[in-house]
Amino acid sequence: MSIKVVGIDIAKNLFQICILGTNGRILSNRKVKRDKLLDTIRQLPEKTALAMESCATSHHWGRVFQELGYTVALIPAQHVKPFVGRQKNDANDARAICEAFSRPDIHFVPVKSVEQQDLKAIRSVRKRLVENRTALANQIRGLAAEYGVVFPLSVKALRSHLPLAIEDAENEFSPVMRSLLQTLYCDFIDISDEIDEVTQSITKLSQQHLRYKAIKNIPGFGPILTAAIISEVGSGKQFQNGRQFSAWCGLVPKQNSSGGKSSLGALSKNGNRDLRTLLIHGARAVVRCRTNSMDPMGAWLRSLVTRRGKAKAIVALANKLGRVAWCVLSTDCEYDINRAFKPL
Question: Does residue 53 contact residue 9 with C-beta atoms inside 8 Å?
């Protein structure tokens, strides 16, 4: 009997493998130890479809299985959960993966290349360093405020004002507090230097991509957002159009339609949260700097801000910039302001 799909529930040591036949029956559903997994998969016919949840280590196994000549499909975990049933266990999870694979409307996740994985890993390290610096900055502001010294909110301003406050003999800082703030300031500088080094690594690595310069020419796209697009989207061929990409980023409104009546709500916020956040930050910078420009983008922004307000205009611009980035990434075209921002 021919095999339709093999569902693999990924784990650290014990993997659950469910084999579904073309007649819809389960041919096998058993556990396999990690050191026996490849031997078990090699016994399957060539080009067999292997389905897994898109989770930790799934891209690694996807690359390994693809090198062996198998077809790999990574399924978002939220699309697998409805098929698990009442009892959750490894056997039901593997079976649910097979059932989710058979659904016609499932949007699979492409297996990341090693280059994409490298770029995503460096971005994750940078994100953790930025969060640590933000926490440290907030602690410094909170401790200093108890002595009547208040610092501006920006990181740049804190970096320049803190040494002056430590040396100022007229404020209420005690010797113990001055010594503590000096230690915290050194930690703050070290983390900032690490962030700068990691940012340079991200820029150098993403510049090796063929479409890096074309994407970076889009307004609002700096090195970090460009690297995020490259590492998360890849070639962009998995999306049929720009709207599918913006929906994957969660930049389209929710639908609650019935009886022929269409009702749109707030943002769906589905998909990639980090990429959506970066797109909105990039759009916010464009709105701040380009609203008064006399080019087609400026006219488009002024009209939208007048009709819908600044906040909604920022999200709408993030949606448009995301679609433009997908078009530039998935095709050989370049950014054209006259084509991207037609009069409303």
Answer: yes
Structural tokens at position 62: 């996807």
Across the strands, what pairs with 286?
none
User: How many Cβ atoms from other residues are within 10 Å of residue 289's Cβ?
Assistant: 11
Q: 340 with 320: CB under 8 angstroms?
A: yes
pTM: 0.84
∠ CA(34), CA(39), CA(45), 5° rounding? Answer: 130
Structure tokens at 211: 């479409």
- Rg of the chain over CA atoms, in angstroms? 25
Please give the DSSP secondary-structure letter assigned to residue 49: E
**Mean pLDDT in consecutive groups of 10 residues from the start of the chain, 344 residues:** 88 92 89 93 91 92 93 90 88 93 86 92 95 96 94 91 92 93 96 96 91 91 92 86 87 75 71 88 91 86 90 91 91 86 69
- What is the DSSP annotation of 304-320? HHHHH-HHHHHHHHHHH
CB atoms under 10 Å from CB of 254, counted, come to 13
Rounded Cα–Cα distance for residues 51 and 120 (Å): 23
Tally of helices (H runs) and strands (E runs) in the chain: 14, 7
